[in-house]
Specification:
Helix content: 25-40%
Number of helices: 23
Radius of gyration: 24 Å
Largest sheet: 8 strands, mixed
Mean pLDDT: 93
Structural class: alpha/beta
Shape: globular
Strand content: 5-15%
Oligomer: single chain
């Protein structure tokens, strides 16, 4: 192992000793309680399969016959989730072939951040993760299952399913993805038209036409944002079947992988020699592996929240210092849009996850000695799935990149460090994604222009007030204030100003999209303004310094002067679009570095 990876892992293990032991104790107690249906009354158990076909009913009468839960985030508004409509029938047939049954245990909400970007609904987005976690618990709390399959792909959905399933960590749990849509219009052309629209040089019809050519069919959006970072993460944590992440939907190979998931879940259930509960799969080492994969591929900054929250659900405590130290030794191996010009389909074709896993293991930057749903050891994930005569098989993945413009070896990377860094100083602690930012833009010192809402910044741009060097401070965007929405709609505007030659950066206690790109952005600033953080004391004209090289986020105002100022007043809570229903979650939310989670009361 690389000494830094080893040291960070040891620190996480020590920090998590009590909480991890408590979690494992609870999971062991749940395991020894046995399958819940054995304890249900006849009336209760009859309720559980009253609507099942006769063949299923006969199998379910046998308390030894395995029963697999399906928890799905299907809806047909999300292109990534539309293919999940077909999955339950495939899964049920595969379980029946193993002498078991599968039941659709429950659905969870799945909102599309691509639809709500820049809209009021985005203020529900982060909290939807915790709603999904609770919905997963509701689905599994019937306690009638030997294993569970999680059907979900996109931004908050996979983290939410993970958190919820970990509460039932004595069960084997396998994530079943749907795969990316086929490639559409080039990312470069899409970015060009978006930039023209931001400048008023393209019409809405022209922009919509381009967007429709980009987002054109079923499957995950093909840029490397949070959704596809989720799929990378599930492979690195051993919760997918190997190589399942980036196989396109509605193909024979995708259907074969979907069919194999319930069969593998039954094969690793309690009572078998291969028992692999989720509580054993998700541990300190697999969390470090997830972080390593995120850094090596230039993945979404949203996972500096989600990995923290998922880890905590398994009793593992990580913080941004862990990300920062691992980033300094983990090379950036991939350039996928917005960090490069090509999409995830090109990444997959170049070697994809099998190559990334091989390189990280060979470099000692990921832990091989982990439990996975595919068996012991992460080496299993350097294999790729294929169909031979209609049968699903795995073969070793490539040992060399097939496209060095997209994917490079660990000893000859695009950058010697990973794509995420920690910033700290007088404005608090924040993270910055550097993998798509040019080196000359990683240090910005300029006067602040303070905005209480992202729409105010967009309006200032329309009025021509931003044609200068500045650092936009967009505050009261944290979880306690308005649910920590992504501020993705600011990216085109700030990008245009950057292209004009101005020194521009963003500092916010909100989030940026997993697809954030070339503009330097200090995000997730903690403590947030609504909790009395330093952002509440910044005024327009204050000199602010963002230095990603040195890891500094500073306000160049004397401390005494800053302390003498009254804090800015938090805006009144917004109503409409369901936001009034989430007041309790805003009040319960922990700080960003603790995952901005509402489910762990002692994290605030």
């Amino acid at each position: 192992m690389h000494p830094v990876t080893e040291a960070v892992t040891a620190r996480i293990v020590a920090r998590s000793r009590e909480s991890r032991a408590d979690y494992l104790s609870r999971m062991e107690a749940a395991r020894h309680a046995g399958p819940g249906r054995a304890k249900l009354s006849c009336a209760n158990w009859a309720h559980a399969f009253a609507a099942s076909p006769d063949g299923d009913k006969q199998r379910m009468r046998d308390p030894r016959a395995p029963n697999v839960a399906i928890v799905s985030a299907y809806n047909d508004m999300l292109s990534a989730h539309q293919p999940l409509e077909r999955f339950p029938e495939i899964i049920k047939a595969a379980a029946e072939a193993m002498g078991g049954t599968a039941q659709f245990a429950g659905g969870v909400p799945a909102m599309c951040d691509g639809v709500t970007q820049g809209r009021p609904g985005m203020e529900l987005s982060l909290f939807s993760r915790d709603v999904i976690a609770m919905s997963t618990a509701v689905a599994l709390t019937h306690d009638a299952f030997d294993a569970a399959l999680m059907l979900g792909i996109c931004d908050k959905i996979v983290p939410g399913l993970t958190i919820g399933a970990l509460a039932f960590g004595h069960l084997p749990v396998i994530f079943v993805p749907g795969g990316p849509m086929t490639s559409g219009a080039s990312n470069a052309e899409k970015a060009r038209v978006r930039g023209l629209y931001a400048e008023g040089k393209a019409t809405r019809d022209e922009l919509l036409d381009m967007e429709m050519k980009s987002y054109h069919g079923p499957g995950t959006c093909t840029f490397y944002g949070t959704a596809n970072s989720n799929q990378m993460m599930m492979e690195m944590m051993g919760l997918h079947l190997p190589g399942a992440a980036f196989v396109t939907p509605n193909t024979p190979l995708r259907d074969a992988l979907t069919s194999a998931a319930p069969q593998r879940a039954i094969a690793i259930a309690d009572g078998t020699n291969a028992y692999a509960p989720m509580s054993a799969v998700v541990d300190e080492k697999s969390i470090v592996n997830a972080i390593a994969g995120l850094l090596a591929t230039g993945g979404s900054t949203n996972h500096t929240l989600h990995i923290v929250a998922m880890a905590r659900a398994a009793g593992v405590i990580v913080d941004w210092s862990d990300f920062d130290e691992l980033s300094k030794v983990t090379p950036l191996m991939a350039r996928v849009y917005p960090n490069g010009s090509e999409d995830v389909n090109a990444f997959h074709a170049a070697g994809g996850m099998a190559y990334v896993v091989r390189e990280l293991l060979d470099a000692g930057l990921a832990h091989e000695d982990v439990t996975t749903i595919a068996g012991p050891g992460l080496r299993r994930y350097q294999q790729e799935p294929f169909l031979e005569g209609g049968k699903l098989v795995w073969r070793e993945g490539p040992n060399a990149s097939l496209n060095l413009d997209i994917l490079r070896p660990a000893n000859d990377p695009f950058q010697p460090e990973g794509g995420i860094r920690l910033l700290s100083g007088g404005l608090g602690r924040a993270v910055i994604k550097t993998s798509a930012v040019k080196d000359e833009h990683l240090i910005v010192e300029a006067p602040a222009i303070v905005f209480e809402d992202q729409d105010d910044l967009l309006e200032a741009h329309k009025k021509g007030e931003l044609n200068r060097d500045f650092i936009a401070v967009v505050r009261f965007q944290g979880p306690r204030s308005n649910g920590m929405p992504e501020l993705h709609s600011l990216t085109p505007v700030l990008g245009v100003l950057l292209d004009k030659g101005f020194k521009v950066a963003l500092v916010t206690d909100g989030r940026m999209s997993g697809a954030s790109g070339k503009v330097p952005a200090a995000i997730h600033v903690s403590p947030e303004a609504a909790m009395g953080g330093p952002l509440a004391f910044v005024r327009t004209g204050d000199l602010v310094r963002l230095d990603a090289h040195a890891g500094v986020l500073e306000i160049l105002v004397p401390a005494a002067e800053l302390a003498s100022r009254p804090p800015a007043t938090k805006p009144a809570a917004a109503f409409g679009y369901g936001r009034e229903l989430f007041g309790a979650m805003r009040r319960a939310a922990g700080p960003a570095e603790a995952g901005a989670c509402t489910l762990f009361g002692d994290a605030a």
